Amino acid sequence: MQAADTIIFDLGNVLIDWNPKYLYKKIFQTDEEVDWFLSNVCTHEWNEKQDAGRTFEDATKELLDKFPEHEIPINAWYGRWQETIGGPIHDTVEILKAIKESKKYRLYALTNWSAETFPWALDNFEFLHWFDGIVVSGVEKTRKPYPEFYHILLNRYSIIPQKSIFIDDNLNNIAAAREIGIDAIPFVGAKDLRVQLEKREYRFEKFGNLKNEFALIISCVLL
């Protein structure tokens, strides 16, 4: 394995807590109603099309034509979409900060995110400006796990796959990264991420603010 010089982060549910149930529990009275709506109306597959560049206007019109009786919750998806954001995942942000402060790695983000809402994220999460570059699916009109989306990042920033590490909570995205030669870590939590980095012979040398008070600042030598 070549020594890594680049670390690539996913954003949603790795660094930023996102869950549409945060919004729809305010709109519907029961969890069953929320689950039905997200499984049948504003579905994951429907939302992926916005991640890949479809406009809010077109996406909303499609659902209103199919489900006019659900006009209010459909319009809420984008009218109140900030309420789907729970905030930063602080423990992972601390790890990101440690890597940034080590000055040993280039840092990038590869995110499935609508081009229409990502500017709000840039305005509200200061740590997004720690990256050397961010590739946004809605801007590029393609998304994870399609290989061409990874290659946009690799080509734009001259990243060598075999010298990079990718962190994502979606196993399909992890598999796609591995297919093109990237060492990919499935994200299940900040504590496990720290363990996975240590397995790659990272060394945590200074203390930060993780709830478990683990060391954060990383210096590393990879095999």
Question: Any overview of this molecule?
Answer:
- By secondary structure, this protein is an alpha/beta fold.
- The protein folds into 2 domains: 6-17 and 87-220, HAD superfamily/HAD-like (Rossmann fold, 3-Layer(aba) Sandwich); 18-85.
- Helices cover 44% and strands 19% of the residues.
- The protein contains 11 helices and 9 strands.
- It has a 5-stranded parallel sheet with strand order 5-4-1-6-7. The chain has a two-stranded antiparallel ribbon with strand order 2-3.
- β8 and β9 form a beta hairpin.
- α1 (21-27) crosses α2 (31-40) and α4 (56-66) packs antiparallel against α5.
Using the coordinates shown, work out and report the CATH topology of the largest domain.
Rossmann fold
- Number of beta-strand segments: 9
What is the oligomeric state here? single chain
> Could you say which overall geometry the principal axes of the C-alpha atoms support?
elongated
Poorly predicted spans: 206-223
Range of helix content: 40-55%
| Strand order in the largest sheet | 5-4-1-6-7
What separation lies between the terminal Cα atoms? 6 Å
CATH top level label of the largest domain: Alpha Beta
Strand proportion = 15-25%
Q: What order do the SSEs take from the amino end to the carboxyl end, as H and E?
A: EEHHHHHEHEHEHHEHEHEE
Biggest beta-sheet profile: 5 strands, parallel
